[in-house]
Structures are given as structure tokens and as C-alpha cells.
Amino acid sequence: MLSRQIREHPLLGGKELLVILLRRLAVSIPLLFAVSFLTFLLVSLTPGDAAYTVLGSSATPDQLAALRQQMGLDQPILVQYLNWVTSALQGNLGHSLITGQSVSEAIFQRLGPTLSLVGIATVAIVVIAVPLGLTSAVRGGRLATSIDTISFAGVAVPNFILALFAIPVFAVWLHWLPPSGYVPLASSPNKWALSLVLPVATLAFGAVGIIAKQTRAAAEDVMSSEFVTVQRANGYARQSIIWKHVLKASAVPIIAYLGVVIVTLFSATVLIETIFAIPGLGGLAVQASSQGDLPMLLGVTVVFTLIIVLINIVLDVVYALVNPKVTFR
Amino acid sequence: MTTRRGTVFRTLITNPVSILALIWLAIVIIGMLIVIPLISRYSPTEQDLAATLQLPSAAHLLGTDSLGRDILARLAWGSRVTITGVVIVAVIANVIGATMGLIAGHFRSGLDATFTAFADMLQSIPALVVLLSVAAVTSRNVTVVMVVLGVLMSAGAYRVFRASTLNIRGELFITAARTSGLREGQIMVRHELPRLLGQLVIQSSIIASLAIVVQVGLGFLGIDAAPPNPSWGGMIKEASTSIYTNIWPLIPTSAVVVLTILAFSTLGDVAQRAVLGRRRHNGLSRAKISRSVAKTAARASGATVSATQVASTAASAGAAAGAINPMLVISDLTVSVPKDGSSVKLVSNVSLTLLPGEVVGLVGESGAGKSVTARAALGILPAGATATGSVVLDGQEVLGASEQTLQKLRGSKIAYIAQEPMAALNPAYRVGNQLIEIVRTHQKLSRKAARQRAIQLLETVQIKNTEHVLKAYPHQISGGMAQRIVIAIALSGDPDVIVADEPTTALDVSAQMQILDLLRTLQKERDLAVLLVTHDWGVVADLCDRGIAMYAGEIVEEAEVAPLFAHPRHPYSMALRASDPHAQKRGGRLHSIPGVVPPPGTWPSGCRFADRCGFATDACREQAVPLELIEDRHAVRCIRVDEIVVEIEELRHESVTGERTAVRAEAVEHDALERVTREQAAADSAAVESAAVERVTIERVSVD
């Protein structure tokens, strides 16, 4: 079913990599504008504005008006937006209403932990889930059932709840791992790795089951196709049929699913970073949201979207590499 | 992925797992949302600092939290926030997703591309971060946050509804509705929308399960009920502050959240299974093969003369002539697959023999069991199938042999050519890669030498532009070319037997002729034994030494090609012959056999062809009909075989007078064949209107 969806997918059915990438950009650039503009629009519709947030409820109307003028809040929304876009394109996303820190700077500082978290989780998911899914497609039986169970558990147990149970078990009772906190890679690679084990494991847990299940479905789809019968019947080595032929032929739907999963991983960092006290983008978003720090929130949202767009572009290239129907011209 | 409402709802209330899920949801919705708030003696915000962090007791069924509040009461009151949120998300996501999906799937073209691009955009948005922004600017207005979540989640629903609509739209009854003058809007609302209801159940459950995760997550971040008012997410947040000291409050709270998510995703899963049906066949998983002595099976079948004997007669005749051993002997092969708890036979008691250099044709309609028989010769059975009987290839038993043994036999002793050449090559690898791989599997050669051998093989199958073809991907070559490459793959291990399963069916006419020529040439040059599966009588005449007609899983007639052609004796062979387009008289009626082959599991206990046979009598339906030798090397499974000859003669004789004698005789003969089954033919045309029946392929023999 999925592979069919993908074959019929207007974005994935392209013939040339360039066309695929242009299509991706055609969707991505409006997306970035849409996300930023809608967030902007929402802000303008809010009764209490940025000036109010900065000065608090004790401010006099005169003070508010003065600050509004200073911040450009008295101008039409479209002008405000264009001003924001102009400076954003130059790398300036404004300043925090709370601390006055540059938004780009704050985001840049927080980028490392989030990217490590999602990056390692993605690698873990692929390395564990794809072989698991493929093996279960071949063997079926108990392995397939346990993947179903893991995948079901992954869906049913939200990763932040899993994290809350993992901390007392692995950090408090067993003392294997630190309960929370983040050590930068530069200061101690060893501690960096240890500090990421629980966050990565809880982040990846649900996705492993999902990707394994999708891999199994895609591989089963491929294995029921004629070429597998022809290869078996004509003496191709079994290992080669499974690990070479079936794997590559089922790669396209797996990659498409991986794209969806990575997006959800980024969303999930918001909770995971909060629980493990990791100074990343997700935590920054939560902090900015609770403080009503709108420029910061806007900046984080746009950067998150940008990262996802970039990941999708990378996946498009990977997709082109495994799909011979895409040509490089 | 179309759905029938009835199936989905019925499955949900009969499947034990989904019943458990429904019970849990009833507990949450009726018990927690409605009843407990009415009867509980605790208010959800009432603190009791003397009784904090208590384990379950008679006073507090689920214990108390860090402020001594009753956990059960808080869970019950807190369910309101989550359930309201989930309902908002599910309704919005489904309404938007289904509407857009229906429109895109129905009209396709520009709208489809636009909507799908839009769905792509929505799915690239980091949902939780956007929701945090929305929460911040709306001063944590939970309703608005959930509405936005519903919009974001509509993209996933849109994809599913679009795909389902695409499937439904392709079905025949939609075309019929359009032909009968219904407007597009009417078709969408009256015909397509109802079919999406099953999908609506599935999507609602899946969306609900995902929405709870986000809703509780937001609650965890403090974006739903304002403290001290309870919410599930907020309670988990409170419980998380004491996990180092007392983990109890986290347990019931998490359990309720997890069970509710589990219940919704279970419902979605069960409903989806009901729609998708059983799992697909899985070619690589090992089939269970049980071998038994051929005699047992023969006795069970009650056949007086088994096909084995016929085959061995043929074989011994051959052996007497040249003292040669048969290449392939299939004896009393019965292949069954499990279905709904019982086992259904796909072929029963099939026996055949293939001598070296001999070409045997297996003829019959789709569903006769030809392919199952042919593939069994390679030790390949349908997934989950069991086989009894034996398949001996050049003295070696194939059924029950280890995968290793089979891998050695395949390609070097016996090879396979498939029906769909375009699907027979791996689309992900270049032709050269696939061909060189198999060359190196059979022979230890360097890469360079293997490439040379691959080029040789391509020349053997009369491909000229070899370098170009080696570099091509399968989608860049024609069907005829692909079939040549498959033949090259089959020849790469220098086999003695080739199993060719409808090798020309999928090709256009000129490619058909070329491939048949190629097969004939290769067969002569290499003295190959060929088991050729076909429904094309012409191919049998062209290539084969012997022909075997199969019907509903058994052999009904076996003879050398000349007598089988000139004087087919089984009514089914006659009908096949009559419906062969090559054999038609100019201007004559193209005959087709009315009705369909009964699918496996529905075979009658008497003659399996009786219901479609114009000569059938009550006696035919009484008991299983044995395959009997009627003359040397000619076996027929028909108890009226002699009477029918007489009957046809009489019919001819009666109409000998008059100018249109021949035509009349032919017509009478056809009428006899059709007599019994006219009603069935009527039912046939009615089937066109019913999409359900349409799914059963009505494949007439005379299709080409």
C-alpha cells in the first residue's frame, strides 16, 4: 500500500534529481514564509503584545506606546513582517524580549545538543530497525510478532513517559547513567556520550518499532514480486536476494517513512530536552513559550522548519541514489 | 484499500482485542468523564497534607499525590481536558482530510498535485514547536491549540483518503455510474464517500491515539488546565517531580494515558486489518513441506488409475524406445494452503513426467493450478503451503529438500522463466549487475570473465547491443528484451530443464513470435526439457510434444499433441479447443466457456467440470472421476468419454442435410456445451455491475 502511495506521489514520482529538488524547494520556500508569517499574524492578533510582555502589567499606556513605537509594533503587520524577513535573511532574527540576547545567537548556542540528539537517534533507528524489519519479513513468526509488539508499545507509550520511568530505573536504582544534564562533546566525549544514552534511547524507542514495521511491510511487498521468485528459481544466493536485492528494492518507502519519523523526532525533542535538562532548541522553545518571548519563539519555529526542510532535501538525494528511475542530469 | 463498512464495524465488536479496547474506552468516557465526578467524595483540588504520596487504600483507591490529593478523582476530572482535545483534533483532521482527499482522489490532475504539495508542507512543520507558539500567543487557549493540531494532522488523513478514493474511483461500478449519467458530485457523495466510512473509523482511531500523545505532552509542559485544576499531562508533570523519591503517583497516571492511547491504536489496527484482509504471500519464508508415500495420497483420492500410471506409461514407452530416464517426475502432488483454520487444496494428485529434451505443455484457464504445479517442480510453493507426493528431478527429491540443496539444483539443473518479464528483473539494479551476479553464483569467475560470459549469454538470446543492455536498468528496456534477459539468466547455469510459466502472455504479438522462436531454437540446440505453462492452444501446437489439460487443480486430459489437437476427448479440452481464436472458422462465432473455474476450496466432489459441461449428467456429479487411459498414452478424466463421442456424432448426423451443415453442426455442439450454463452466463454479465464480484477475475480462455 505504501509503495503504491509513493509511486503515485506527485513529489516522488519525478524523473530527474534536479526536478525533484526544484519541486522540494517550490514547497519548502513557501513553507518557510507561511510558517513565519502565520506565527507573525497570530502574534498581531494577540491582545497582549510584545511591549506588554516586556513592561508587564504595571506599565502605563504612555510607556507602552513609546515602546511599541520603538519596536515598530505600531506599523502595519505586513510592514513589520517584511522588516523581520529582511533582517532574518541577513541572519538577524531579532532579540529576546526577556534577556535581550540575540535570537540567532541563542539558537546557534542551542543547536549542537539538539542535532546530536536527533542525529544519533536517527542513526540508531536505521541501524536497528532496518535489519530487524528485513529479517522479520523473511522469517515471520516470533520475530515479526515481537516487532509488532515493540511497534505497538512505541506508539502507546509516549517517549516522555518512557523517559520518566527510565530515569529512576537506570539512573537512580542502577546508577548506570546520569539522570539528566548534558556535557558538551568538546569538554568530555565520554561524558557527552553517557549523557545522551537515555535521551537518545527514549527518543528512538517508538520510532524503531515503526520503522521496523514499515521495513517489513515494504520488504514483504517486494518479496511477493515476480523478480524474487525468478531469482530464487534460477539459483541466486538466498543471502544476496534478501540483503542486496530486496533491501534496495524496498528502500524507497523506507526512506519516505524515515522523513516523517525525523520530523516527529524534532517535535519530541521539546519534551525530551525538558525532562533531561538538555540545553537544546526544544527546551528553548518551551522556555520562550512560557515566558511569552515571541521573537525567540518565532526564531526557533523558523529554524526548526528550516532544519526539517534541509533534512528533506538530503532525503531526496538519498532517494534519488536508491531509485534508478531518477537520473542525474 | 477500499472498505466495506459492515466488515469494519462487525470486526470491531467481535474481535476480542478490540472488545477490550472498547471496554477501556467505555470506562474512560462513562466512568471517568461522567460517573466518578458525580459520585466521588473527593474534589480534585482538595489537598490533604497529612496524607501525601500514599499508596492505594480503601480511602484513596489509586493513592494520593504530593499534595495529598486523590489521584483517582484528579484523573477523572482531568479526563475532560484530554477527551475534549482529542475530539476536536479527530473531527477537524478527518473533516479536512476526507474532504480534500476525496476531491483530490476523484478529480486528480492539478488539484491533486496542489493538495498533495500542501499536505507535504503541513507534514514538514514541527508540530509541537508551532503549538507552543500558538499557546504563547493565545495565552494558552487549549481549544485553539487543539484546532491547530487538527489542521496539522489533517495532512496524514488526507493522504489515506486520497489513496482510498483513487482505488475506489478505478473500480468498474464508478465507471458504470458515470455512464448511467450521474454527475461527478453525485458519484462522490453517493458512491465514493460511503466506501470511505471504514477508513474514517480507522483514521479517527489513529488520529485520536496520536492526539492524546500531543495533548498530554502539552499538558506536561503546562499548556492545558491551569493549576491546580487537574489534567492528565499536568498530573504526569507533578508526578515527575517526585520520581527520585516516590514513583507511585506516576504509575496510575501513566497507565491511564498509555491504556487510552493503546485502546485507540488497537481499534485502528483491528479496523485496518479488517480492511486490508490477510497478510500478503511471502515468497522467501520457508514453506512447510511434508512428503509422504505417493500410494497413501493415491488411495485417499480414490482414483482407480492414477495419473502416475499414465505418466509412467508414457515414460516407459519413451524408455522402451531409447532407454532414457525421465528428467522430472511429479507424482501425486497435492499442494494445500491454510485458509480460515482449514486447509484448501490448490492442486490435487497431479502426476506428470518430463523426458530429457521433451516439451510438455500445461494448458488450462487461470486458477487451474498450472503455475502451482510448475513452480513445485522448482521446489517453490505458495507461502504457508504444504505439499504431499513427490517431485523428483533427475533422480533427486525436491519436496522437503533443504534450501541449500535446492539453491544448487536451481539454475544448474532446472531454471525458470516467468510470465511478466518486466517484473521479473529487480528494478533497482542494472541488467549487467543482475546477470553478472548469477553467472558468478554458478561459476567461480573473475569479474571480467563473468562480464564476458554475460555478454555471451546475451548473444545466445540474440541480443545485439550487449554493452548498452548491460548498463540499462530494467525500466529502460522493452518487455521482449526483458524476457530475453530472463532467458539468459535461466540459461546461465546450463540447466537441463526449463519451467516456462506463460512466457509470452505479457508480450505484444511480434515479441511473442520472437520469444517463441528463440525458445524453440534454444530447446533444439541444447536439447532442453521444457515444462511450458500456457493458456494458448497455439503455443502448445507450436512447441510441445505432449499436452496436459488441467482444470480446478487436477489433470483432466493428457495426450500427445497430435491427438489432443485433432480429437480432444474431455469436454473441457474440447471447449478450450473451441474457444481457441486460432482455430476459429472465418465468420464463425468466437466461442467462450461460460462460467468460471471454481476457486480452490469450492471444488465439487464429483466431476469438477460438471457445472460448466454441456454433456454432464447426474452420474457425473456423484463421485470423484478417475483419470483413465482410453488408448495408448492418452488419459482422460471423464466417465462419459465414450458416450460423448457418440452424442456429438449423432448431433452432426442429424443436421447433415441442408446447406449450412458444418455451421449447424458446430452451433449444435456449442449449444450442447452451453446448455446447462446459460444462467451462469447471465449471472456473469450481471457481475460487471457488482464490484464485489468483479474482484474475482473472470478470465475467459479466448481473451486474446
Automatic annotation (TrEMBL), chain A:
It is a multi-pass membrane protein. Residues 111-319 form the ABC transmembrane type-1 domain. It is found in: Cell membrane. Its main location: membrane. One of its GO terms (cellular component) is plasma membrane. GO terms for biological process: transmembrane transport. It comes from the Bacteria. Keywords: Cell membrane, Membrane, Transmembrane, Transmembrane helix, Transport. Pfam families: BPD_transp_1, BPD_transp_1_N. The chain crosses the membrane at residues 21-43, 117-138, 150-172, 192-212, 254-278, 298-322. PROSITE patterns: ABC_TM1. InterPro entries: BPD_transp_1_N, MetI-like, MetI-like_sf. Signal peptide: none annotated. Belongs to the binding-protein-dependent transport system permease family. This is ABC transporter permease.
TrEMBL record, chain B:
Residues 79-268 form the ABC transmembrane type-1 domain. Residues 328-577 form the ABC transporter domain. Its main location: membrane. GO terms for biological process: peptide transport; transmembrane transport. One of its GO terms (cellular component) is plasma membrane. It is found in: Cell membrane; Membrane. Keywords: ATP-binding, Cell membrane, Membrane, Nucleotide-binding, Transmembrane, Transmembrane helix, Transport. It is a multi-pass membrane protein; Peripheral membrane protein. One of its GO terms (molecular function) is ATP hydrolysis activity. It holds the Pfam family BPD_transp_1. The chain crosses the membrane at residues 12-39, 81-103, 115-136, 142-161, 200-223. InterPro entries: AAA+_ATPase, ABC_Ni/Peptide_Import, ABC_transporter-like_ATP-bd, ABC_transporter-like_CS, MetI-like, MetI-like_sf, Oligopep_ABC_C, P-loop_NTPase. Belongs to the binding-protein-dependent transport system permease family. Belongs to the ABC transporter superfamily. This is Dipeptide/oligopeptide/nickel ABC transporter ATP-binding protein. It comes from Subtercola lobariae.
